[in-house]
Amino acid sequence: MTTLTLAKALNAGLRRAMEQDGKVVLLGEDIGRLGGVFRITEGLQKDFGEQRVLDTPLAESGIVGTAVGLALRGYRPVVEIQFDGFVYPAYDQIVCQVAKLRTRSGGQRALPIVIRIPYGGGIGAVEHHSESPEAQFAHTPGLKVVTCSNPVDGYWMLQQAIAHDDPVVFLEPKRLYHSTRAELDPALEPGPLFASRVVRSGTDATLIAYGPTVQTCLAAADQAAEEGRSLEVVDLRTISPLDLGPVAESVRRTGRAVVVHEAHVSFGVGAEVAAAITEQCFFSLEAPVLRVCGYDTPYPLSRVEHEWLPTVDRVLDAVDRAVGF
Amino acid sequence: MSDLIQLLTADGVRVEHPDVAFSPDPSLLDTYGDEPGVLRALLRDMTLVRRFDVEATALQRHGELGLWPSSLGQEAAQIGAGRALAPGDYVFPTYRDHGIAWCRRIDPVDLLGVFRGTDHVGWDPEEKRYAPVTIVIGAHTLHAVGYALGALHDGAVGTGDASRDTAVLACFGDGATSQGDVNEAMVFAASYHVPVVFFLQNNHWAISEPVTRQSRIPLVQRAAGFGFPGYRVDGNDVLATYAVVQRALEHARTGQGPVLVEAVTYRMGAHTTTDDPTRYRTDDDLEVWRRRDPIDRLARYLRTTGGADDAWFAALEAEADELGADVRARCHALPDPSPLVSFDATYAEITPTLAAQRAEVAALLDGTEVAR
Ligand SMILES: Cc1ncc(C[n+]2csc(CCOP(=O)(O)OP(=O)(O)O)c2C)c(N)n1
């Protein structure tokens, strides 16, 4: 068993997927010799060659559109978008082509494309380098959207996404790339890809998070425990399709739910989760489902991003409100 | 035209070109006296911009900036283009065009805010006629075309009135030429015959990707495909770049339509301070370009022709030291913004939802109870 960072785990996951299936090809800017700006593809071009790891021209629409053609030809393209804010030049290809080609072919053509996007803030970056675009893709029928919060999930979920026959937007919380480590046992069988999971049990309220905010919620639960309050944390893992099973089960037990994400609050994933919980758990709820999210401004200047991102304090404040309702 | 236009060799020797000559604008001659005076001014610009850039790189290393994109090696391309601008021209820059910003009389410290995370734009874009820098590659080339179209429709092109006529400079790199937006910008520019100069600094690298990944042929040849003229100039030769961009801006301003200028140069430093160029390029390559340094060659020319003496160079060195110290001190003093600014800057008038969120943040900042 080895201890890996999320970045290394994703690299190992890509490597194994490429070893197991000769049709897996990687496309992206700077992913070859440089190994990607976050080094997620480090060493892969050296070992698998330039036909399987393509350094592309600087054109996101071109990258994704080309991946569509490769997929139609029987390949399994894994696209790297360099940063979240640069996915929008490819938005048309993703939303109008990647998402709809199965439908447009009357269900006859699969489109096994994975679009990897480092996402989220908290790293002191300049503008366009800290966005959370998950809702935009989750709102698009034909796409599946997942995100990992730890190295073990990163390793397995990426391989599962590559093996999956539908296009998957795979969001990688960039601020966790090097800050989380975990032991990885490649012999262990992973759970299913499109499944949420209770990552900490508790009884007083349920925190629902995904990607970078899972760590925030775990820290909040730690702090709450010191004050004698027991919080359950659910890692959504899959945003679309949403796996509400473990969430609903948890909320029925705790009676309270707080959804936590970095993306803007309005019209976001939190609204979807809150609506679904209300429909399924109405008679168990002791308080309205609350949201702790990014505000409805463009992502702020890095010097003040800590005032914008959901913090442990903001999460605990929401828990207080839910409990005191 | 895909041969390389050059007026000053890497050894600091003036050479002739059949079509292009260095003839400084009368206003520059008025300001700096004579041609050697203008050349000294260009050398001063390049030297100070380089010092600023080196200082900013050091500031990043000391944790004062989150990131810094160095312009080291591209001083001639940027000062050549920047000094060729007329006061009324408008620039749509990239994040690396510190030299052009310098020519627009933007305080260099005001360029740091974007990378320190304290400010989106440290200057008044209208006053300086210099748009906020664009991070998303190539997007602003379309804005440049739209601005130029507006100038055309306003009758601010080809009137012969120098105070009224406008050209627009759209800056981008070799990597950017692959973007759909840049290609669409060229289609629109040609279609509407707008007064835009596409100023392409081919610094040979888009992060780790060599220019050959973007194009098999000299990039200047694309102009012909879109239907407007293109010039390929030695971008490490400030005289040639000045001459070519001056001519291109004149072409645009007088209503003759768009032009592409490819300035062939080299990014000597890392792409940004987070980049490690040793992973993808060799020292040999760097050495070749070091011998073509834009500052050395003009200094050599001025020394050999008696255009500047030791005392002048010593004074310039002292001025650069002073600039460096000043930039360092004032960077440290840049104030953090209020977290409330983005709430106030999102819409013309704050929306009810956002006003409630703003109140929540204000209360958190004050440590008071949040009113709900
Ligand atoms: C749409 C988009 N994709 C990717 C990036 C990330 N990125 C920033 S600079 C850069 C390379 C740009 O190369 P070039 O256009 O040649 O300009 P240079 O940086 O060399 O001046 C890349 C890929 C970006 N900023 N925008």
From TrEMBL, chain A:
It comes from the Bacteria. Keywords: Oxidoreductase, Thiamine pyrophosphate. SMART domains: Transket_pyr. Pfam families: Transket_pyr, Transketolase_C. The keyword Oxidoreductase applies. GO terms for molecular function: oxidoreductase activity. Residues 4-179 form the Transketolase-like pyrimidine-binding domain. Its EC number is 1.2.4.-. Gene3D superfamilies: 3.40.50.920, 3.40.50.970. This is Alpha-ketoacid dehydrogenase subunit beta. The lineage of its organism: Bacteria, Bacillati, Actinomycetota, Actinomycetes, Propionibacteriales.
TrEMBL record, chain B:
CDD domains: TPP_E1_PDC_ADC_BCADC (cd02000). Pfam families: E1_dh. Its cofactor is thiamine diphosphate. The keyword Oxidoreductase applies. Keywords: Oxidoreductase, Thiamine pyrophosphate. Residues 45-322 form the Dehydrogenase E1 component domain. Gene3D superfamilies: 3.40.50.970. It is an enzyme of class 1 (oxidoreductase). Its EC number is 1.2.4.4. It catalyses: N(6)-[(R)-lipoyl]-L-lysyl-[protein] + 3-methyl-2-oxobutanoate + H(+) = N(6)-[(R)-S(8)-2-methylpropanoyldihydrolipoyl]-L-lysyl-[protein] + CO2. Belongs to the BCKDHA family. PANTHER family: 2-OXOISOVALERATE DEHYDROGENASE SUBUNIT ALPHA, MITOCHONDRIAL. The branched-chain alpha-keto dehydrogenase complex catalyzes the overall conversion of alpha-keto acids to acyl-CoA and CO(2). It contains multiple copies of three enzymatic components: branched-chain alpha-keto acid decarboxylase (E1), lipoamide acyltransferase (E2) and lipoamide dehydrogenase (E3). This is 2-oxoisovalerate dehydrogenase subunit alpha.
